[in-house]
Amino acid sequence: MGSNPTLSAKENLVEKKYTSLARKYRPQSFDEIFGQDVAVKILQNSILTKRIHHAYIFAGVRGTGKTTAARIFAKALNCERGPTPNPCGVCKNCKEITQGNFIDLIEMDAGSQTSVEDIRSIKEKAIFPPARGRFKVFIIDEAHMLSLSAFNALLKIFEEPPDFDIFILATTEPHKIPETVSSRAIRIDFKKIPKEKIVERLEIICQNEGIECEKEALELVAEEGQGSLRDSISILEGIWMYNGDKKITREDLGEIIGIAPQSVIIKLLESIIEGDHKKAIEIADLVLEKGYNTKRIARDLADITKDIILFLSGANKTDVNKKAIGQSRLEEINWILDKTHPTIEHLMRIYNGIIKFEDDLRASISEEIAFRMFVFKLSYIHKIKTFKEIIEEIRNENKVNKELNKSSKEEIFSQIIDFLIQSGRNILSDKLRQASYELSDNSFTIFFDDQRIIRSLTEMKEDIEEIIRKSIGKDINLKLELKKQKEEIDVEKILGDEFEKQGNNLEKAKELW
Q1: Burial of 277 (C-beta count, 10 Å sphere; 0-12/13-18/19+)
Q2: Chain mean pLDDT for the chain
Q3: How many helices (H) and strands (E) are present in the chain, helices listed first?
Q4: pLDDT in tens, 51-110
Q5: Which residue has the higher pLDDT, 185 or 113?
Q6: Which of 381, 312, 375 is nearest to 349 (CA)?
Q7: What is the dihedral of CA 425, 427, 430, 432, to 10 degrees?
Q8: What span, in angstroms and rounded, lies between the C-alpha atoms of 85 and 41?
Q9: What does the alpha-carbon distance between residue 106 and residue 65 come to, in Å, rounded to a whole number?
């Protein structure tokens, strides 16, 4: 009886089933975790010193090894040769944890299991001792997505956990975990992995997989991963599949993942600093036409703008910093400075505008609209007055208005006195010289001590207003008012009966008052 070719093909397919690079190179021991020395040391020392807490919060951005570290910690606690900071990886417990079928390791995705019922199922499992290992480890991924009622349900077991239970809450947003929960757990922060560490790991993967890749290309992959090793490995894997067996170059990488050439970034920044709206929009249209990554462009713009600001301020003019930023970046900076001659203040405003792009993008109905408006606003920013400039203009305007007001007030008063002298009213003009006056927007007010003077001038009010209009070219309402007299204290009224007791003695009453 002949063999079944279809079955053989299926068996071969199973044997040769492809495993993604991120899964294939997932660390299986603490020594293999890259760039998280502090977190690893805390976990290993907690085992060495036998200070194993019942609850941990692993906080950090995606792809930094939170869930991986949680599994390795579970392996270290339940290794047949442990608890040990260096699990063997070959015993039955270690192998089952690696394969994901260890009965005492319970993983829950809070992104899809957020209800109280899901937490109740965990509580039901938590009350029973481990079946195989020393500890029953619960890993709750994306823990911040649990509902408030679910957190409240979890709180009880957090307060009085059995000795054999370990809870690990992995989250990218630790601030969303209620304080009642976080205060009962040890928080361990997983930092973004340094670019050098990511490149080091990528080089090992390329060497093992036979991938030819330039060092500059790997550095670009690490930059694109933004501190996430998993994202960086996934980017490398995608490019490897696209390129086949060809050597991966920096140029290939830029084209595949939509990174604009640096010359485009420099030209765009030049047009923005110079305020050339037309040129800036033309470059924006080119970027969209070529399908370049707009977020990456904003990041590159922010990066070079930051370097120029630091260079102008003198912060990175030392030999050490010059070496750190590289000769090519120095050439770019000098080229921009020679072309545009920007001020630090102008560049700071541009930088502040750049870092708001992602917020604008989230709020926009279209990436194209958001990017075009982003570029236009940056190129127009030099025409928008700063808060400091606005305040200074208001101060100057108020100062000018005060000076004009003062000169106009004196001129009007002088014109009125001249009118009275020319009309033979010298006594009235002398009285007027002793009066006080003020000028508002549309009225000129004179204050007198004597009501008779007011009556005399009222008869000439229209003539005087005509003189004022001709003098300053503006209609002004003349107001004639009595000065407000100081109110005398009515001692008798205030003191009442006490005034009578003092025998109507005014002096004594005043002293008493």
Answers
A1: middle
A2: 79
A3: 27, 8
A4: 888 889 999 888 888 889 999 999 999 988 878 888 888 888 888 888 888 888 888 887
A5: 185
A6: 381
A7: -70
A8: 9
A9: 18
Amino acid code (one letter) for 237: E
Could you write out the three-class secondary structure of 18-87? Answer: CCCHHHHCCCCCHHHCCCCHHHHHHHHHHHHCCCCCCEEEEEECCCCCHHHHHHHHHHHHHCCCCCCCCC
| 39 in Cβ contact with 64 (< 8 Å) | no
- Pairing mode, strands 443-448 and 436-439: antiparallel
| Of the candidates 420, 441, 440, the residue with the CA atom closest to the CA atom of residue 429 | 420
- CB-based burial of residue 439 (10 Å sphere; 0-12 exposed, 13-18 middle, 19+ buried)? buried
Confidence class of residue 41 from pLDDT cuts 50, 70 and 90? very high
* Vertex 496 angle, CA 492 and 500, to 5°: 85
pLDDT digits (tens, 9 = 90+) for 270-281: 999 888 888 989
Query: Which of 183, 172, 185, 178 is closest to 54 using CA atoms?
Result: 185
Question: Looking at beta carbons, which pairs linking 217-226 to residues 24 or more positions away fall under 8 Å?
Answer: 217/248, 217/249, 217/250, 217/252, 217/253, 219/195, 220/250, 220/253, 220/254, 220/259, 221/253, 222/195, 222/198, 223/195, 224/257, 224/259, 224/296, 225/63, 225/198, 226/61, 226/192
Q: How many residues does the chain have?
A: 513
Identity of the amino acid at 228: S
Task: Find all residues with CB under 8 Å of 38, minimum gap 6, and list them.
Answer: 189, 191
The sign of the dihedral angle between the CA atoms of 285, 287, 290, 291 is negative
Q: Tell me the mean pLDDT in the region 473-489.
A: 70
3 state SS of 461: helix
3-state DSSP call for residue 135?
A: coil
pTM over 0.70: no
Task: Answer positive or negative: Cα dihedral of 130, 135, 141, 143.
Answer: positive
Buried (b) or exposed (e) across 417-433, using 16+ Cβ within 10 A? bebbeeeebeebbebbe
**Cα(first)–Cα(last) distance of the chain, in Å?**
129
Could you tell me the sign of the dihedral formed by the alpha carbons of 472, 473, 477, 480, in that order?
positive
For 171, phi then psi, to 5°, come to -150, 145
